Amino acid sequence: MCSNLSKYFAEFIGTLLLIVMGVGAAVLAGSSIGFLGVSLALGLTLMLLAYTLGPVSGCHINPAVTLGLCFSGKF
């Protein structure tokens, strides 16, 4: 069973990777890879994170979802 600290760290790493990969693809290579490339970068990153972080923290990734679940007592 995972401790709360490992869950929080997994959510932090997941959010960080999603931002770096998705926004990085859009900002650094958006003009050359187009909308399809950016959407594939975001989608494949999210899929990878769901498979790797899902068992640890539930893989909410979006901090707004995590805070909403935390405030409602369902996290």
TrEMBL record:
It comes from the Bacteria. Its main location: membrane. It is a multi-pass membrane protein. The chain crosses the membrane at residues 12-29. Signal peptide: none annotated. The keyword Transmembrane helix applies. GO terms for molecular function: water channel activity. Keywords: Cell membrane, Membrane, Transmembrane, Transmembrane helix, Transport. This is Aquaporin. It comes from Candidatus Finniella inopinata.
